[in-house]
Amino acid sequence: MEEKIDTTKQLKISLPIAFENLINVFMTLVDTLVISTIGIKELGAMGAMSVVINIMQMSIQTINVTNSSLIAKSMGEKDDNKIKLISGNSMILTLAISIITILIALIIMPIFPTLFNVDKICNTYLLIRLIGFIQGSIVTVLSGQQRTLGQQGNILKLRISAVIINLIFDIVVVKLGYGIIGVALVTTAIDTMLGIYLLIKSRRTIIYKFSKGMIKNIFNLFKWNFVERIATRVDNFVFNILVSRMGENEYAVHVILIQIKDIVGSFVQGFGDGITISVGIASGRKDTNYMSNVKKVAKILINKASIMVPLTTLFISFVIMKISLNQLELQKIFCKVLPILLLSIFTEMSATYYYAIIRGVRDFKFLAKRNFVTSLIKIVVATILAYTPLGIIGVWISFLLYCILQKYMSKRRIEESELKLRQIV
Asked: Over the stretch 66-103, which tens digit does the pLDDT of each residue have?
C-alpha cells in the first residue's frame, strides 16, 4: 500500500517545530518585557543589541537550514551514515564561523551606542552575550538536527523548560538590582546548559569526522542561504536605525513591535520547516505521487493557519502592549502601526506554502536573489517614507510591501517549475 502523509501526520511534524521556534523567541521576549519595567533607556539599549545578535546568528541559522535540508533528503534516501556525517561537518563549520563572528563583533562593538543612539550599557550587554555565543550556536544547529530526525516533541519540552527558568531568574536578577547585565548573564548561562545537554543527547547521531566532499556539499547550499539571510538582516538593520532616529517613544514601540513580529515569524517559520522536512524527504525518495500528496496537505494547513495566526496575533499584541507600554502616547503609536503588522503576518503566513516547498527542494539560489531584490526595495521605500509625515507608519508600510513582493515572486517560481515539469512529462 502506498504511503501517504495526511494533515494529522503533517501537524505532528510542523506544530512541535512551530511552537519550539515560538518558545525560542520567547526567551528574547521575556528579557525584553522584564527590561521594559526598568526604563526606556535600557529597553532601547537591549533592543538595539538584539538586532546585532540577530545579525550575528545569521550564519549559524544558515548552517542549521542547510543541515536540516540535507538530512531530510538523506532520510528519504535512507542513508543513516550520510546523516551522521552531514551533522558532524555542519558542527565543525558552526564552531569555526562562531569564532569568526565573535571576533568581528568585538572589533566593531565601540560604534554601536552612537549608531543606534542608545546608552553605552548596550555594549556591556552584548559582551556578556558573546560569552555564550558558541553555546547558543551549538543549540541552534543541534536543535534543528534533532527536530529533523523526528525529536520535535523532546526539543519543544526542552525549550519550554528553558523559557520558564529564564523568566524566573530574569525577575530575580532585576529585583536584586542587576538590571540588563543580570538578564544577559541569565541568558548566557541557559545557552550553556542547553548546549551541553544537546551535545550529549545527539552523540549517537553525529560523526565528527572532517570530510572535504561533505563540507563542499554543505557550503554549496550554505552560500546561497547566507546571501538570502544577509539581505534580510541588512534591511532590518536599516529598519531599526531609521526608527531609532525618530525619538525614544517611537523606538520603544518599534522594539515591542519587532518582538511581536519575530515571535509570530518564528512560529510561521517553524510551521513551514515541518513542511520543508516532508518535501525534502519526498525529494530524496524521488516519488512524484508522494510529493503531490505533501503539497496538497500543506496547502490545506496553510490556508487555515493564514486566518488563525493573525487573529491570535491581534490578541497577543494587546496583552503585550498593556504589559510593556503603559504610557498613553506609546499605546497610540502602537495601535497605529498594528494593522500594518497584522496584514504583513497574514501575507507571510499565506506565502509559507511556497517558501517551504522552495526550501524543501533546496532552491536556495532563487531565495537569495529574491531576498536581495525585495530587501533593496524595502530599504529604499522605508528610507523615503521615514522622512514623510507617515514616520514610523511609513517604515512599517515598507515591511508590508516586502512581504507582498516575496509572496508574489515565490508563487511565480513554483508555478514556473511546475509548468516545466508538466512539459517534460
From this structure: 888 888 888 888 888 888 898 899 999 899 989 999 99
Q: How far is CA 219 from CA 59, 69, 143, 366, in A?
A: 11, 13, 20, 16
Sign of CA dihedral 110, 115, 120, 123: negative
Cβ distance 280 to 73 under 8 Å? yes
| φ and ψ at residue 209, rounded to 5 degrees | -135, 115
Segment (H or E) for 400:
helix 392-424
What gap in Å lies between CA 231 and CA 37, rounded to an integer?
33
How far apart are alpha carbons 83 and 74 in whole angstroms? 6
CA distance 228 to 413: 16
The C-alpha angle 405, 409, 415, rounded to 5 degrees, equals: 145
Alpha helix segments (H runs only) across 286-391: 288-324, 328-360, 364-386
Domain boundaries, the chain: 7-424
Are the beta carbons of 136 and 184 closer than 8 angstroms? no
Give, in degrees to the nearest 5, the angle at Cα 162 between 157 and 166.
150
What CA–CA distance (Å, rounded) separates 165 from 201? Answer: 20
122's grid cell: 548596550
pLDDT in tens, 223-276: 777 777 776 667 777 777 777 777 778 877 887 888 788 888 888 888 888 888
CA 276 to chain centre: 15
